[in-house]
Every structure is written in structure tokens, then in C-alpha cells.
Amino acid sequence: MRRLLRAWKGYWFRDTPLVNLAVCRILIVAVHLRWLVQQTYEYSASQPASLYNPLPILHVLLLPVGWNFQPDLAFLEAVHYVTLGAGVLALVGLFTNLGLVLFAAGNILLQAHEYSFGNFHHPEAPFMIALMILALSPAGGALSIDNLWRRLRRNAHRLRLEPARLLERTSPFAGWPLRLIQWILALIYLSGAYAKLSRGGLDWANGYTLRYYLVQDGLRWGSEIGLWFSNQHLLAQVLGWFTLLVEGTFFLAVIFPPLAWFYLPAAAALHLGIEVTLKAPFFHWAVLYSVFIPWMRVFERAGGFVKRRRQQLGV
Amino acid sequence: MAFVSLFIVACLVVQAVASSGKRPGPFEYSPYQWPFIDYPMYSLAHYEGDEVSRLLLIGIRPDSTKIAIEPEDLGLSFFPYLHGPIRAVRDSSPSAASPFRDIYAERHGVEVVGFEVLDRPIVITRDGYHPGPPKTVASLSFEEPAAAGSGIER
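ok -> C-alpha cells follow
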């Protein structure tokens, strides 16, 4: 039991550079902020009360104003602007955790409301989970105004200036959020593969399946390129097998990190293809792949490269 | 550390259960666990000759004439149209369909006494795809129509 606990601690709570977590915070919040700015609520606010069937999480978030409260447009817009403000705080790292908690809660409330009228989609769900996870993490421990302020106060207190050493700061709590988001992504892809294999078996990759969906969504959303692909039978077979391979074995990138060099571009290409042909907006998931990237090492190598170039150029 | 460990386990268990597509009791339908959900989109296998459904809601007036009702006629986008009135008619549920009858009457001043769901399928073949014959796949009556219908108005 003790060995199991030690292994658990060693996996989830090993020292990790805070910069790795901070870069992911900035990227994920920035992409989601950009998405949030474009949202409008006239459609869902104009839906009749008879169609309102709130998701459980919406009931919970609206509890302070009433279990069965149905938000109107003014309420949704107020939440929208508070959420935007919280997102900006989370992005720049000022009151980072408070900003992240409000950003996550506001986004979940707005999206859950939209999905409480029989309209339900998948692209936002992993972002909501990632925001919840980041809200409970030391995501403001680096690349943040909070951290800058903390260092300034410390320097003022000691009456001496210490170098920032941004890349050297680590925390045992900086790794678990990244690894948890990795596993959530792996479980999500596994869900896609499991559904395909349990319902259709290997026939899913027979070419007709993919062509069927390309015709269905190509006609539904007016995708000319999707309709063109729907006539390429051999290509549809190859892409069918590629989809099953990537979704079914994506978890290997979590267990064997070097495999991320294959799985991340492959999954991003898959989402790009889906977005272009089926017009299903999943490509922005690629920003969640930032949790796989050892940013500190990237910055160190980039810094080393710049240093060498400057030496070569005699600058 | 204990709190974080509990949170990690909870997230993984809830997502794993959701990913399996099997949901207990009150969480029978996927969105109820949102944002922890399964991803079964595009998961059914299809074969040569399969038909891609293209469903259209048809309203039946008191004089039995039929009228095509598109999503925008009800102020709906595509998926709420599919999951709302189309599903209600296919489930033969007058209580689920009646709000859409009322919305249509309010927006267009036209009374309907029943709905049908018309499928205008597209057939997938080895070499491409082509339209199949239209067919009524479900119908629902709020009351008995007076006489036989005479074509669909648009």
C-alpha cells in the first residue's frame, strides 16, 4: 500500500516547472477568451420556457438565484461580461485562481444554458474540464502579475534585487493538472474509438461509413470539399483506419511521452480534416495539446539557440 | 495533497464512466453529466446502399392539407429542430410536440392538427450518391383530420 501511495505521489506530484503550467494557462485561456468574445445569447434567451430543460450543472450554478431560475438575456450578458473580465485576469495572472474559478464557472454556466434546450454538442466540454482543473492549480505561479508582485514584495522586504530565475521554479503541484488534462483527453479519444468499435466493429473503416457522414454533413452544412471527399472511396478507407488508430491508441502518448510527436500532429490533422469537411469545430482542441509540451525545455533550447547564433554573429 | 488526489480520482472516474457510454440512473442521457460526456458521434458503421436521412417536419392543417415546416419556421437551428419536433413526432409524444404546434401557430397564424416526418434520403453507392424515394417515417395527430390530404404546400 505504501509503495502504491509512493508511486501515486511520484506520478502526480513530482516537481514540475511552473512555467510549463503557466504557458498552458495562457494558451488555453487566450483561445477560450477569443471564442467567448464571439458568443451571443439572443437565440437561447428567446427560447420558450416550455423547451427549457436545464442540465444538472446549470441547476447547481444557478442555485443562489433559485433552482428553477431561467436566465433572461440581461442575466446572460451580465454573466458574459463578468466571465470576460475573469478571463482577462486569468490570462495576465492577476488574482489568477480567483480569475480562473470565475472564468470556469461563467463559461460552464453560459454553455450549460445553451445546452438546456435540446441542443447539445461536444467541442467545448474538454475546455470546461481543463478550466476547472487549472482553477485548482498553481497556474499563476509563473508568467503572471501575481508572481511578479510577490517577487517585488520579497525584494523590497530583503532590500536586495534577486534575479527572476523564471525557468528554475518548480512545484510538486504544477504537474498534476497537466497530466490530468492529458488523461482526460486520452479518455475522450478512447470514448470515440470505443463507440465506433462497439457499434460498428472494424466495418467502421470500410470506406462507406466515412463517405456516409461526409455526404450527410456535406449536404447539411453545405461543404463542397466534404462532398468531394465523399466520392473518394479508397481515401475514405485509409482515413477510417487512421481515425481508429489515432483515437484508439492516443493514450500511449500519455504513457510514453515521446510518442506525442506522432499523436499530437496526427490528432490535430484529424480535427482539421473534420472541421474542413464536416464543418464540426474541433480543431481548437489542438491548444489543449499544450499540456503535453515540456515548455521549460523548449525555452531553454530556444535560449541556447539564440545565444549560439549571437556568438556566431559576434553580437 | 489528499484533496487534489480525490479531485484527480473523481475526474478520472467520472470521465471514464462517461466515456464508456454507460450511465447510471438519473444520468441516463449523456448531456446530464456535461461536461463529462461520451463521444459517440459518427460511430455507426454504414454500407453500400445505406440511405442518408434528410428529415423534414410536415404540418397537417384541419382541412388535411400539408405544409412543410423548416427549422427557421419554428425559430430553431438544425439540431434543436432534430431533437425537438422531429424527435417528438418520431416518439409519438403529443405532449413533447404540442409546444411546436403552439410556436408555429403563434409565428405564422396557422393551426396544425398533426405532424408528419418526411424523409428525403440520399443513397450511398460504390461510385457516388443519389436521391432515394421520399417516404413518411412517422406521424402524430393531435386530433382526427377531416379528409385526405392533397400535396405539400411550401
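The beta strands of chain A are 16-17, 170-171.
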